[in-house]
Amino acid sequence: MDEPIDLDDLALRAAAGDRTALDDLLAAIQPRVRRICGRMLLHPQDAEEATQDALLLVATKIGTFAGRSRFTTWLHAVASNSARTTYRSLKRRAAEHSVDEMPVAADPRTTSVIAGSRLDLLEALEVLASTRPELVEPLVLRDIQELDYNEIAQLLDAPLGTIKSRIHHARQAVRPLLRVDEG
Predict the structure, then answer these.
(1) pTM (2 decimals)?
(2) Among 15, 68, 88, 102, which one has the highest count of C-beta atoms within 10 angstroms of its own C-beta?
(3) How many domains, in total, are found in the chain?
C-alpha cells in the first residue's frame, strides 16, 4: 500500500528549490486543483484553463510558501483566485466580441454564456471581494467547494466561530446580488 503524500513536506522541499519535489507536488495536486476550479467554472475547458493557470502559479510562486500554514490552505486560495481570474478574463473577452455573436436563449442570471458558470455568483463574489475580501474565501470554501465548517476553520487556521461568522456575513452580503427578478 502506498504511503499518503505529505503535501506540506513536498511543498517545503519545492520551496527550497528541489525540482523533483516540485514535479511530484504538481502531479499530486492537479486533480485537487481541477476540482476546485471545476466547482466555480462549470464548463470543462474553462476549468481546465484555470487549472493550468493555477498550477503555473504554484510552480512560479512556490518559493513564497514558508510553511506557516498548511499547503492546502495556500493552494485553495491560489486555485480559487485562478478560477475567478479566468472568469474575469473570459468576461472581458466576451465583451470585446459583438453582442450579435452571443447566444440569446441562456438566462444570464443563472447560466454564463461566457464561462459556463453562474454569472450571478461570480459577480457577487467580485462585489464582495471589493468591499470585504476576508469573507470571500470562507464563502467559496463552504458554498462552492462544499467543505464543512471544521475543515474550513482548519484550512484557514481560524477559530470555528470566526469562520461561521464570516460565512454568515458573506451570505448576507451576496444574497441581494443573487436575487432573480420574478418579472
Answers:
(1) 0.68
(2) 15
(3) 2
